Amino acid sequence: MQPVRFVHKGRGAVTNPAGRHERVAREAFDDGWSPAEDDGPAAPATVVTRERARSIVARNASPDVGFDVSINPYRGCEHGCVYCYARPGHAYLGLSAGLDFETRLFAKVNAAELLEAEILRPGWRREPIAIGGVTDGWQPVERELRITRACVEVLARHRHPLSFVTKSSLVERDLDLLAPMARDGLVHAMVTITTLDAALARRLEPRAPAPRRRLETIRRLAAAGVPVGVSLAPIIPFVNEPEIETVLEAAREAGASVANHVVLRLPWELREVFADWLAEHVPDRAQRVLARLRDMRGGRENDPRFGSRMRGEGPWADMIRMRVQARARRIGLALRGGPVHEADVPREGGGPVHETDLPRDGGVAGAVGAAGAPDTPRRARTGPASADGARRAGRGVGGGMGSTRGGFGGTGGTGGTGGTGGTGAAEPGPPVQGTLF
Q1: Backbone phi, then psi, for 55, in 5-degree steps?
Q2: What is the mean pLDDT of each run of 10 residues along the chain (437 residues)?
Q3: N or C of the chain: less Cβ packing under 10 Å?
Q4: In the prediction, which pLDDT does 20 show?
Q5: What pLDDT sits at residue 352?
Q6: Considering the entire predicted model, what is its pTM?
Q7: How many other C-beta atoms lie within 10 A of the C-beta of residue 5?
């Protein structure tokens, strides 16, 4: 039985399938009575539940994600990006990865308080804190709630390094905090742009700013001195994949100095949500898209293995990677993410950047060292931070917040999960895991 799909203005998902932990599944279906054109459920409103989280800092152990520590002030995201890998996280709340994810939001109102207590704790390591590893910290509800801004205020007050990925132009509101931090080498930004086609963007990511507006955000961040890159994620075959080169060129022209890319992955319920979207919006290409994803995932729609889940494998994945690399070289855009494949990205003065030239610790060696902050511990496998590492970290990677371990987790499919723990389950409320996939 095929579920009935409803397209709601300003919403990405066209269905609301039951979560994988639910015992009972309910779905609408066509009973053959041919309802009127405007007959159907009313457009769902956004409901925000304010909660006091028990913790806010999440630790990430994924080797292909370019950060170790992250915070996520919100669960769910009103941007409604249909491809968002974070959607299945709502199953832990007894909610759907479909419309529920973009309409049933949870705001951690005490996030800044918890963050400050954490970084003042004895033994805290000064390493960049990533904002937006799961959901966008500057999504529409942030305009009123200002939770992410409060967290940035804490980090600015303590001169603590941070990185973030966002689709939202609302981040420009916080340039009064971010610009001074950037002058001290404490911040790096990534802006996600999947397409320059406004009509496609309205269907893919309906409540995110228009693509041209995001380019303007890159321009304004760069003008304010904030090192900024573009996250081309996710790349969807036959949907936005033809735009790889034009997106990179537009972002470079706007001021981006670094780029990363991620191939679409479909964990858990996201496979159904995305397949329903394809059937509704691009039925002529739906099966081709899914078939090509299977080609890059060893015959499956999703491959959760570290090392291959972000980029895929096989001829199509290689072709995408080579297209990104070739255009980046041509326009002087450094590449972030991925292991050895991207060791030949351009750098200042010409010639390739070798793997040893790129920072391995999220950029602390360059960002914090330049600010005169204490030397920052690294993982044992990468060796101690050093002045030489600080010099390398700033070379050719747009401010030294890059990583060879993988691109930053991005809202809406740009990287991995926010890490284990620290997701801030409400009291009372169901337990929520941080690692979703």
Answers
A1: -155, 165
A2: 65 74 63 56 86 94 82 96 94 92 97 97 94 94 98 98 97 98 97 98 96 98 98 96 98 97 92 94 96 93 83 94 97 71 32 31 32 34 36 34 35 38 38 32
A3: N
A4: 67
A5: 32
A6: 0.74
A7: 16
Maximal CA-CA distance, the chain: 72
What's the confidence (pLDDT) of residue 336? 79
Q: Which of 435, 424, 391, 346 is nearest to 118 (CA)?
A: 424
Do residues 62 and 417 make contact, with C-beta atoms less than 8 angstroms apart?
A: yes
Q: Is the peptide bond before 63 cis (omega within 30 degrees of 0)?
A: no
d(CA 50, CA 69): 23
pLDDT at site 334:
96
Q: In which residue are the tokens 């003008």 written?
A: 223
Comparing C-alpha atoms, which of 127, 83, 194 is closest to residue 366? 127
Three-class HEC string of the chain: CCCCCCCCCCCCCCCCCCCCCCCCCCCCCCCCCCCCCCCCCCCCCCEEEEECCCCCEEECCCCCCCCCEEECCEECCCCCCCCCCCHHHHHHHCCCCCHHHHHEEEEECCHHHHHHHHHCCCCCCCCCEEECCCCCCCCCCHHHHCHHHHHHHHHHHCCCCEEEEECCHHHHHHHHHHHHHHHCCCEEEEEECCCCCHHHHHHHCCCCCCHHHHHHHHHHHHHCCCCEEEEEEEECCCCCHHHHHHHHHHHHHHCCCEEEEEECCCCCCHHHHHHHHHHHHCCCCHHHHHHHHHHHCCCCCCCCCCCCCCCCCCHHHHHHHHHHHHHHHHHCCEECCCCCCCCCEECCCCCEECHHHCCCCCCHHHHHHHCCCCCCCCCHHHCCCCHHHHHHHCCCCCCCCCCCCCCCCCCCCCCCCCCECCCCCCCCCCCCCCCCC
The two structure tokens encoding residue 41: 């459920």
Token representation of residue 98: 């479909």
C-alpha separations of 15 from 80, 97, 266, 280, 325 in Å = 12, 9, 16, 10, 36
**In this structure, how many other beta carbons lie within 10 angstroms of the beta carbon of residue 375?**
16
Task: Give the residue carrying structure tokens 């340039």.
Answer: 175
Contact 136, 105 (CB under 8 A): no
> Could you tell me the sign of the dihedral formed by the alpha carbons of 180, 55, 135, 328, in that order?
positive
Residues 6+ apart with CB under 8 A from 413: 81, 83, 84, 85, 233, 234, 262, 264, 265
